[in-house]
């Protein structure tokens, strides 16, 4: 974690040490939830290793996977975290997960202790927003085949860990269509 925090060039060594003293190591098993619909987000986590999927239920109770979170990324039901209201999303481990979590209260205390923390959290939020915007544009603009190719190029090690039903939901297609895409790419 220390190396990751140092890459931003914002925090002092003492601030990084303070941050490391505030985080808690957690492990989730495949299938465990980081947060479920109806809960209020009280923490943010850094994914050290593993893979999450984020999904919601439609009004007809259909699961829709809209996001995968990979290692070396932050994960949170962020709208709930900010507003302290109940979330409509579910964040579930698709593999064994190792996390470093920090509570909302600790983040607020850090922000009060130094403007460096405000700069750091602002930068993280901006980066996560840019990733989300790219994901939205990819999902809205590109074909299912292009979205699959994007995963194949950028996250090939996790593609095998994502069950086809979740992957097809994420791509907005049927499992049958996904099979055709996979077959055409491998040929």
Dominant shape: globular
Spans of at least 5 consecutive residues whose pLDDT stays below 50 are: none
Nearest-integer average pLDDT: 90
- Fraction in helix: 40-55%
* Secondary-structure-derived class: alpha+beta
Number of helices: 9
Largest beta-sheet characterization: 4 strands, antiparallel
- How far apart are the first and last residues' alpha carbons, in Å? 41 Å
What amount of the residues lies in strands? 15-25%
Describe this structure in words.
- The chain is globular and about 55 Å long.
- It is an alpha+beta fold.
- The chain has 9 helices and 8 strands.
- The model has no long low-confidence stretch (mean pLDDT 90).
- It is 50% helix and 22% strand.
- β4 and β5 form a beta hairpin.
- The N and C termini lie far apart (41 Å).
- The strands form 2 sheets. A 4-stranded antiparallel β-sheet has the order 1-8-3-6. The chain has a 4-stranded antiparallel β-sheet with strand order 2-7-4-5.
Mind sketching the topology for me?
Elements: H1 2-6, H2 13-22, E1 24-28, E2 33-35, E3 43-49, E4 52-57, E5 63-69, E6 73-75, H3 78-83, E7 90-93, E8 97-103, H4 104-113, H5 115-141, H6 144-154, H7 156-159, H8 164-171, H9 175-186
Helix pairs in contact: 4-5, 6-9
